Amino acid sequence: MHLQFFVRSPNHQTLTLTLEATQSLTLHHLKSSVLPEPQLLSSFYFTFNGKPLADSTLLPNSQLTPLSTLFLVPRLSGGGGDGGATGAESRDCYLKMYAVKKPDKVDPNEQRLGKWLNCALSNEPLREPCVIDKLGNIFNKEALVQALLGKKLPKEFRHVKGLKDMVNIKLSVIPGKESDAADGATFQCPITGLEFNGKYKFFALKNCGHVVSAKALKEVKSSACLVCHKEFVESDKMVINGNEEEVAVLREMMEEEKAKTVKEKKKRGIDVLDGEKGCGKLEGNGKLENEKALSNGGVKKFRAADLAPANATKEVYASIFTSSNKSNFKETFTCRSLPLGRN
């Protein structure tokens, strides 16, 4: 019995090989029939459907049946001799690998320094005057005010509506460093000397604006500012660039303060209305004359008859200011809503 295979040589010629069927027939026998010189056997290998095949592959098998076409491919020098870099392989995997752009790795130290040394809005180096919002973000005041005036605040800073939502802070410059220096921190704690670079927790005191480290407040137990000695309460301490939990607490305090302000405004509006009620004329029965009118519309409508002198007829007195007898008014083709005696 004879087995017939087709071999495509490197010079694009198709050879027809016929071998006798034996039990130990392999690709090595097939290669020997194509390459008579023994030193060339290790320089070539077979591929089938783009996949490299070992020389020990038996013929025939489930994949290589008689009349199959095999490709004889030379081994490339420096490729390791395993057939991994061949022209018959698909290059889609390599193209896809380089087509996907990998995100740049961010240095956590640079990210931390950028958050503590630069304005959260403009990303410029911090320079006085500086402010923080009610969530502990730190800004250059000029940049924040300009964004407010131009209505260009990003979504994450929309809670800042005006100057009342800012807290002016006072940073202590490290001696010998300029405020716009680019090499490391330029501010420090005025008590402990810890640098304002994100490695340590800092608080801003709302009542005076001084920024001190948490270590200073912990070691020196005092209810007064350690710099200006102004009294403060626990709620005056605002953490700067806090973590998620600390920011959540500050956000809750901000919402409570906002709700309290709205409630006070509504209460003041009711108090003003009560003051208007007290301005009414007190009648003999002890009730305000304009109380009913104010309860219905809030503002009493002017009526000249109510202000008539004691000895005057109300209708006659009211006619000085308004037209009281509207039933006598008739319209003409030249004038509307005027009595005939006046046009």
Which characteristics define this entry?
15% strand; 343 residues; elongated; alpha+beta; Ubiquitin-like_dom; Rtf2
Question: How would you describe this protein?
Answer:
It is a single chain. This protein has 343 residues and is of the alpha+beta class. It contains eight helices and 13 strands. The protein has helices at 27-34, 92-99, 108-117, 141-149, 214-219, 244-277, 291-297, 314-319; strands spanning 2-8, 14-20, 44-48, 51-53, 69-74, 130-132, 138-140, 167-169, 172-173, 187-188, 202-205, 211-213, 237-239. The strands form four sheets. A five-stranded mixed β-sheet has the order 2-1-5-3-4, covered by helices on one side. A three-stranded antiparallel β-sheet has the order 7-6-8. The chain has a three-stranded antiparallel β-sheet with strand order 12-11-13. This is Protein RTF2 homolog. InterPro entries: Rtf2 (IPR006735), Rtf2_RING-finger (IPR027799), Ubiquitin-like_dom (IPR000626), Ubiquitin-like_domsf (IPR029071). Residues 3-79 form the Ubiquitin-like domain.
Brief account:
The protein is of the alpha+beta class and 343 residues long.
Shape: elongated
In what order do the strands lie side by side in the largest sheet? 2-1-5-3-4
Unreliable segments of 5+ consecutive residues: 275-295
* Helix content, binned percent: 25-40%
Instruction: Give the SSE order as H and E letters.
Output: EEHEEEHHEEHEEEEEHEHHH
Number of helices: 8
- Average pLDDT number: 77
Major β-sheet annotation? 5 strands, mixed
For the CA atoms, what is the radius of gyration? 46 Å
Structural class: alpha+beta
| Gap between N and C termini | 134 Å
Strand content: 5-15%
Q: What is the number of strand segments?
A: 13
Organism: Theobroma cacao (Cacao)
Domain Ubiquitin-like: 3-79
InterPro entries: Rtf2, Rtf2_RING-finger, Ubiquitin-like_dom, Ubiquitin-like_domsf
Pfam families: Rtf2 (PF04641)
